[in-house]
Amino acid sequence: MVASTDPELNPQAFTSALLASAGNDSCELLQMLHALQLQFNHIPQASISQLSEALSLSETYIRSVIGFYTFLHETPRGEYDILFSDSITDHMLGSRLLLSDLCDKLGVERGVPRKDGRVTVDTTSCTGLCDQGPAILVNGRVLTRLDAHKIQNIALLIENCTPLDEWPSDFFRIENNIRQSNLLLSHNQCNGEAVQKCIDNGADKLLEEIDDSGLRGRGGAGFKTALKWKFCKEAHNGGTNDRVVVCNADEGEPGTFKDRVLLDSQADNVFEGMTLCAGIIGARQGFLYLRGEYLYLKPQLEAVLAKRRDKGLLGKNILGKHGFDFDIEIHMGAGAYICGEESSLIESLEGKRGVPRKRPPFPVTHGYLQKPTVVNNVETYLAAACIAASGSEWFRSVGTEESSGTKLLSICGDCEHPGIYEVPFGTSIQQILDACGASDVQAVQVAGAAGMTIPPEEFERSIAFEDVPTAGSFMVFNNERNLLDMVQNFAHFFVHESCGFCTPCRVGGALMKDLVDKLTDGKAGRYDTDEMRNIGLLMKSTSHCGLGTTAPNCVLDMLDKFPYIVEEKLAHHASYEPAFDLDEALQEARDISHRNDSRAHIRTDT
Amino acid sequence: MAEKLKVATCSLCGCFGCHMSFLDIDERILDLIKVVEFDRTPITDIKHISHCDIGIIEGGVANAENVEVLREFRENCDILIALGACAVNGGIPAMRNSFELKECLEEAYIDGVGVHTKMIPTDPEIPMLLNKVHPIHEVVKVDYFLPGCPPSGDAIWTFLTELIEGKPISFPYTQIHYD
Amino acid sequence: MKDSDTFTLDGKTIPFQPGDTIMDAAMRAGEYIPHLCHNPEFAPHGSCRVCVVEVNGRQVSSCTQPASNDLEVKNNSEELVQMRRSILQMLFVEGNHVCPGCEKSGACQLQAVAYYTGMLSPHFTHFFPRRPLDASHPDTVIDFDRCILCELCVRASRDVDGKNVFALDDRGIKTHLVINSPSGKLGDSEFAVTDKAAHVCPVGAILPKHQGYEKPIGERLYDKQPISVVGDVAANEDKE
Q1: Crossing angle for the helix pair A378-390 and A193-201, nearest 10 degrees?
Q2: Please, what is the average pLDDT of chain A?
Q3: Rounded to a whole number, what is the distance in Å from the CA of A536 to chain B's nearest CA?
Q4: C204 and C134 belong to one structural domain
Q5: Which residues of A touch B130 (CB under 8 A)?
Q6: Which residues of C touch A579 (CB under 8 A)?
Q7: Of C85, C94, C99, C217, which to mutate for an interface test with B (greatest number of B Cβ within 10 Å)?
Q8: Subunits touching C (CB < 8 Å, at least 3 pairs)?
Q9: Which residue, of A116, A533, C48, C196, has the greatest Cβ tally within 10 A?
């Protein structure tokens, strides 16, 4: 075969072009790898060598970056690379049956490319389309509301090699499902009004305005936004004025999809908020870190950025103010939940494995390339822009004393109207359940896999930093559901997403998953549930970052608040059960010896 | 005089080294038998255990018979002790876990040096091998662990005397080692 | 007035200098806080979590936590010892640590810290991973079974040797040490036995060839005295 000279098809030429446009900057490594993956269904070895040479990074280093991100592969995926969203709510909508159905139809084993290289079918962590699942990604494009009929069509389209662009367009329809709007969702799009106020009234005045509004970070932790910006503004890091504004759009928390909707419907306000932040802290460089699952949003976001550059809202001398230079670049994630943690996100922006940094120092003083950096959630920037435009009083008029304003919730699971609800802070869980049409509710999982499981007796609690904080995920489970399925799904999720840096999360999480599986299989004893608690508490207190400290929440909540789930599974068992299936462990020996007599088995019913 | 404590011991997938080390308590065994009586042990050659106060297990769990014996010990012993590296973490026999069982058997019975009749035995009298060798706590609840390959006679003595006297068990630094 | 900055460690007053972590100050004062991934010659890492201490009711890794005035740090409480023991047990079941068959036994930091915390068993269920040995290098052997992912070799090769021979690949429980060479084997890499990276492994994962079991049982590094008295493996390597 003769190597093609068409850069679209020739890895070497393609890689050279990437390197040239990236100016051989190693911070662009992940972006280049992502582009290569999309182009060639994998990262060709030749490209790894080329990148290694040009960036002065070892090939092993580049491979270790590839190995960290689940969307990157060293061996080819299928021409059609299909990923089923593996969130519990996708399961509840029948995704696992559809997956095995598609595998059967295509004659492909899950996770393994078909021999002819045509297709791979695999799972991926929640794709943020839980209100219109089951969802899949095909070569980075999103398909929603799958059913058996669509699966049959998809199998045919693949067998016929139909290009994705020729697939029925309604397969790709994504709805915003905005069910309830309040302050933010009904605010007009800012086209410089907020930034103009910053110029007219001065950065200090605007920072004061944000401070007065009581705005707290919408990523879940609830740190005061004005304080974060102030710390960054005042950071003396080698006297540099080189500060960075980062928008965290790595919306990976299972069950969360409000940032997707905001970036689709309110992108101007989000960018306005980032520009406002830049004006206040004096930043020149901005990044939107967009999760790989939202690749399809990139072109339209680029278009909004281009429009804002044309209007003088980005670039040099913004709104004519001399020296107010700021621009925003979109960086893609590549399938790593941990990159939602701000210091991992910064590592990822620098093109590295997304391993959380030691803290202190914090990003506000030592962030992107050690520059003072503000990292905020999409919704936080949006709120900041609206506050600058409409005033802190307007914002404070809604919410509670400690949690002003509203919160966008992504509601999915067992309810009649899944979608986006913007509710005032202080709204009770029961009110929200009533609004979304949920009845006979067994539990609500608030704040995603890392969040808390709320039983009915706590439905009067309210969404607020001082009560039930959340970045937006709100999953409803009715009384028909087995909550253990949810716990198992989350336990597997955290093992898949742990970065592996620290012992308690890396090993503890895997031990925890095995114990949850054992419980689910009806093979656990009370000793095992005690172990789950001990491991969970250890992870909570000794893990390096928030992933490890929150990963055991769902298990601990199950043990404490839903003991009946556990009791049912333990009912017929001794307190101590073997760690593995004893009889199953003889299968290899039975296969080899062709024995099947009574001594070739171990009774497991004691 | 108080009734003697009944003690049983056995070796599962081990080398009997821990039992040998037990005998290294030398003449102190005379003091020991003043307070204990041996049930099933390799010394008494009793085949089945009756109810005991203390059961001591050497070796890991490598086959179906090991599982059976271990369960019998657990059912009959108030206190069960994992003695030595193999019982504690699988030890040297667990190094076979790096290979498929088939590879191990083929090496031993087919491809190995000096093998004449090339055949993997299938006699029902021969205990079936588990696909992996496990420490005993992965099969039954274990009350005490004494590591070492083997634990020294002194460590075993410290452990047994303190256990029998009902004291909290603590060892001098040099008595605990994993090798 | 105090003449210097201090905090307390289990009630003892520990002076510290600007830029010190709790670990730095404790080590200088001769106070032992168990640790594995920390080596004072390298920047703090904070991955093993064995050096967990309690500061104002919160657990932090002492090797990364900056010292500050009047902190009340707990080090040897029963609760912390139990946490460290559990973390060590996790490391033991994650790999294949067959001490009776390891040349490093008796002079291994993982083992010594485990002795120090009173670990008598690995407690958890073993993973029994399959990790092939790499004996391709003429002077050094790598037994991945024993790797605890402390990244000291990664750091030494990158920061001291300037070679980047090692890296961690994959993530989560699949994380593993890899070698930068065309075949992935150490023998094909730039690694030399004189590298710093050859002398920082706290366990028996990176071992010199052509020698072994040179010290009889009873005379090895940690046979007579605990690590709190003897010090780290790396510190003793320097003495030799």
Answers
A1: 60
A2: 96
A3: 20
A4: yes
A5: 582, 585-586, 589
A6: 125
A7: C99
A8: A, B
A9: C48
Which of 2.40.420.20, 3.50.50.60, 2.40.50.100, 3.10.20.600 would CATH assign to domain A406-478?
Answer: 3.10.20.600
Please tell me which residue of chain A has the smallest CA distance to C95.
Answer: A507
Cβ(A24)–Cβ(A55) below 8 Å: yes
Residues of A in contact with C42 (CB under 8 A): none
pLDDT in tens, B52-87: 999 999 999 999 999 999 999 999 999 999 999 999
- Could you list the residue range(s) of the whole structural domain that residue C44 is in? 5-76
**SS3 track for A19-65:** HHHHCCCHHHHHHHHHHHHHHHCCCCHHHHHHHHHHHCCCHHHHHHH
**Is residue A161 helix, strand or coil?**
coil
A124 within 8 A of A84, measured Cβ to Cβ:
yes
Task: Give the whole-angstrom CA distance, residue A284 versus residue A334.
Answer: 26
Residues B5 and B164 sit within 8 Å (Cβ to Cβ): yes
> Where would I find the H helices in chain C?
22-28, 78-94, 109-116, 152-155, 227-230, 233-239
Pair C42, C119 in one domain: no
CB contact under 8 A, B122 and A587: no
C49 vs A498, A502, A511: nearest CB: A502
Q: Using alpha carbons, select from C148, C147, C128 the residue that is nearest to residue C49.
A: C148
All residues of chain B having their beta carbon less than 8 Å from the beta carbon of residue A585 are 130-132
Q: Chain C: which residues have CB within 8 Å of chain B?
A: 92, 96-102, 105-106, 111, 114-115, 120-123, 125-126, 128, 130-131, 145, 217, 223-226
> How close B103 gets to chain C, by Cα (Å)?
14
> Which tokens sit at B73?
């010990």
Please report residues of C whose CB lies closer than 8 A to that of B176.
Answer: 115, 120
For B91, the closest chain C residue by CA position comes to C98
What six digits make up the tokens of C41? Answer: 């010659």
Tell me the per-residue pLDDT of A105-155, one tens digit each, with 9 for 90 and over: 999 999 999 999 999 999 999 999 999 999 999 999 999 999 999 999 999
Q: CATH number of the domain at C178, please.
A: 3.30.70.20
Provide the pLDDT confidence category of residue B47 given band limits of 50, 70 and 90: confident
Eight-class DSSP state of C160: I
Nearby residues of B37 by Cβ (< 8 Å), 6 or more positions away:
B4, B5, B6, B7
- Can you name the CATH fold of A80-175? Glutaredoxin (3.40.30)
What are the start and end residues of each CATH 3.40.50.11540 domain in chain A? 180-396
Overall domain count for chain C: 2
CATH of A180-396, one of 3.40.50.300, 3.40.50.11540, 3.60.120.10, 3.90.550.10: 3.40.50.11540
